[in-house]
User: Fold Galactosylgalactosylxylosylprotein 3-beta-glucuronosyltransferase from Petrolisthes manimaculis.
Amino acid sequence: MAMGYFNPYFIKRRAKKWWPYFGLFLLLVIGYQEGVLRSDSSSGSYTTVDESSRSTMKEIFALEREIKLLKSVLKKYSIPEAEYADTLLPIIYVITPTYSRPHQKAELTRLMSVFLHVPSLHWILVEDATHKSKLVMNFLESSGLSYTHLHQSTPPDWKLQDNDPSWRKPRGVLQRNAGIKWLRRKLRGDRDPRGVVYFADDDNTYSTELFKEMRDTKTVSVWPVGLVGGVMVERPLVSRTATPHVMGWMTGWRPDRTFATDMAGFAVNLALLLRRSDAEFSFTSSIGRMESDFLEKLVTLSQLEPKADLCTKVLVWHTRTERPNMKDEERLRKAGTPSDQGIEV
Amino acid sequence: MAMGYFNPYFIKRRAKKWWPYFGLFLLLVIGYQEGVLRSDSSSGSYTTVDESSRSTMKEIFALEREIKLLKSVLKKYSIPEAEYADTLLPIIYVITPTYSRPHQKAELTRLMSVFLHVPSLHWILVEDATHKSKLVMNFLESSGLSYTHLHQSTPPDWKLQDNDPSWRKPRGVLQRNAGIKWLRRKLRGDRDPRGVVYFADDDNTYSTELFKEMRDTKTVSVWPVGLVGGVMVERPLVSRTATPHVMGWMTGWRPDRTFATDMAGFAVNLALLLRRSDAEFSFTSSIGRMESDFLEKLVTLSQLEPKADLCTKVLVWHTRTERPNMKDEERLRKAGTPSDQGIEV
Assistant:
């Protein structure tokens, strides 16, 4: 447990002061054992385990909050990040296509709240536009996240029309590819790029646990996605064997696709993605096959890594936000007095 | 676990003399407990508890190491300690009505991500149901938040029917009142209750800044709400005088209401709410007047505190999530093979 404390370099460097840390360590060990002891002595009931893990969770969140506070102070005083950056974790590169609409900032704000809980995350936000918008620029600048802001417009022929159903045309294709290209360019020459790439649309709902699950992806990791494809949950079917592997898919629509997963249901190892220089998304994929065509360039079914307790937990939901009612706004605009004059929504 | 022991100042102050002895003492205690443990560990379920709490301990160690590192950098750059010292903040009590639907857990997960960024927040989650659901119970338990879980069902006559427009009947009335009642009961006898009460529906989008703004509410504080009432933003009109105050409202619908604000647009001082024992929401409020009727029991217009840079910033959005398409799910249910069998969505 926490062998870092017994690392000879650590001890040498801190020789004079190591007793307090050792004491601290012992205190925690005792605390932990007390927890175990208590849970063991409660005859068959899980209540105590629950309670002790609940209070541990509280402790963890309190510590995380403290870290956030300390980091915000460091930012405020413009202390270089290299002084305190976490360099040990593989970076999660999240690629998100986004486009202008009344609820864009609300959606991005929700993503931000989740991403701020995830250490070593770099957000590549790609606007479907001919230039970067001021709204997104300001939003990212004040977000406190590590990010890259790109733009890449979709040719008009390929855009969804207002009355098209959402599946009519593949969306975000060029934007996701712009994100991938940026990674290829940035990491060219990096012999051992450590990291994970995840494609996160801006309207889905993500839990923070999801990012813990994908962090150590070696090829392509997969998990269930809630509220997608006309069913409550779509998920990989995992064999209950000594070395569990993905055997197929449980979906409402075409489970016979090689990789019958939604965009939100997988993450790719960074080095693998960079090595396969032809791996990108395509407009020519037939309807509902964009993800499968992309993954076929990277792995075979048997190479997939099932995550989220062997695909038994839902940690991401394919939610969609209603287009807000702008009935009165149209009237105000015609009268030359829009409600958002001088205020960004 | 008493966090005071981990306070670095505590450690530093005492470090020089007594830690070695204390450490030795702890070693002996552990030795004793190890003995006890080993004789207990014959039960099969023991391993899992052991491993999961060991990895949690690792996480705690890692977090504490990070805090230590961050504090040492802050010291190195001589940043005043007051900047990052913990203070006693007034508690923000957030009252949220919720009800069962396919995307309930997704919505609650989004709220959780925001609330976890907010120190001193207590979440009062009130289910519109005849009993507490397992889903919400488990969700709250593992959330890491401080919370109270209540339930209060709405009589069938007062429930919205599937085809009713959402404004047809006031929603969440009894649930919000149940939250208020819980506060009155819990804090009875508290002579100086410090805190704020906010009514946060489970589909809106909240920024973390919003909670900073409402924290020191003395009467009732107000701010703009985005994407509501058929316009981009509704907001209080604030005088540009030496002592700025709210003069009226900019809304698409009935700006002549005394308090023409959405539920998401205000917070109430806790002591004030407790003092006005008749302040609660009413089914008999006419359409769109529930908030105004409630606030009339608490303040006058001139007593309102304009927040969010004198109501020039949007920190909360009245978003609504689409009912997910469950077309194929219905088919699966009829066939007796629902997609969410054995997996919570």
